[in-house]
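Translate sequence into structure tokens.
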Amino acid sequence: MKPTLSGAVKALPFAFLSVLFAYPLIMILVKSLTHGGSNPIEPFGILLSDSFYLQRIWFTFWQAAVSTILTLAVGLPSAFVFAKYQFPGKRLLLSLTTIPFVMPPIVMALGFIALIGPSGVLNAFLSSTFELERPPIGILNTVAVVLIAHVVYEFTIVVRIVSTAWERLDYRLQESARVLGAGPWATFRLVTLPLLFPSIIAAATLVFMFTFTSFGVVLILGGSQNSTIEVTIYTLTAQLFQLPLAATLAIFQTLMTFLIMTSYAWLQETKIVQIGFQPHQKEERSNEEKRRRLFLGSNMILVLIILSPMLALIAKTFIDENGLNFTYIMSIFSNTQNSFFFVSPLKAIMNSVIFAIATVTLSIPLGLASAYAIGQRRVWWKNPLDGLLMLPLGVSAVTLSFGFLVTFNRAPFDLRGTWAIIVLAHVLIAYPFILRILLPALRAMNPALRDTARVLGASPAQVFRKIDLPILSGGLVIGASFAFAISLGEFGASLLLNRPELTTIPVVIFRFFGQPGQENLGQALAMSTLLMGMCAISFFVIERTRGEDRWTF
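Result follows.
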């Protein structure tokens, strides 16, 4: 069934990508590969023959795959609880699970240092309790802490996307299976799991893409011996000035992203199941009360573990050996060192919020048009286009930002040092989320609904407004929230493209963290806590204002 948007609207995402993604990327890659008159083919030979780079490529795939499996293993049980049970504080808890995902890598690093560092909360507690001479937990700069950080980071993707689909399943299908003699496991395997498969694949793909292109977490927590492709690109570009090799790795990463997303698009489309979008049965039988309490208690413990780095960071901000201490939170509002680059937290917050609102405003129509452009079934070229539209997630932020600076540097399109170049970079990173969230719902939509509306005389615009939009509205809320969160915590592009007056909260945190002294570290902790509080309030407002019949995000 052909989606009800005009060809001009469907062409919007491809025009956007051509001008703001493909052209800057090609420009920087060409300039890098021909840097200093070098042979553009030579770096590919080095990449394929040098064990150092082959090891980085293998580690990137390996850690992304393991991170994805672990995140699904942790997130799916929690998604079940959030989808099947109603309990006090559910919306607040959902809002809190999003906070780690919003945080820039530098904040996550601070959280883990505050939790499991040599003087972290957990090590201090264990050392004092068991009278240990050395901190018992020493996993910083290891693969283990990278994997744990990825699970903490991506947990909310699995919980929100899968629980949304799970909650919307028509419970009558499962009841019918039970009436026909299927047990709980058979019902889940034969009915529930096939219906949830598109959302699980969507969540797993997003998790894999983020861990495959992981930069800040690996750079700060993993140590130099555990470098991914993204970290290697940054090292070659910013520290070693080996631009041809960096460009070669960027090309490889882009191609891998395209292949992964194209394969995913094919797999997702072949597993689409049309569903009725009916809310699940809210009431639970009284004889399930013990199981309900067990699930809720286990889920609460799991969420607290996920939030533990952030809770430790808050504790380090407000508590010291003498008790409560508000010095750090108060000091960020004063320029005690008379720094020329000082930006007040209020200004940084205003910049971040304005950029996030602009990002949502542009990403929603772009993501919606992208979903409709590839929403048709059984057309062979739709899956490659799907992979193409997801490419911004797989391109190094360093490479893309340099491409922006090289491309948009002349009038009338000189965007250097403007708010527009930062917002456009944020949109490139944010709109794929909206596409991935809307596409399963769009493909699972029953075509008979549109056909019936047309037979009754509805115009394409009326079909979209009366049929499509009510069904997709929950997904749009989800997409807008993710776009807002991504823009708020985006770090790489903002660091390279900003000017002092356009500084965002993550950049301020990075500057505090990069300066020596306990006061600067304390201000970095305080700014991180401030960002967490702002994000918690934002997502809680979204949870409170959504309708009861909308998707749960």
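Note: The chain has one domain: 9-28+51-329+347-545.
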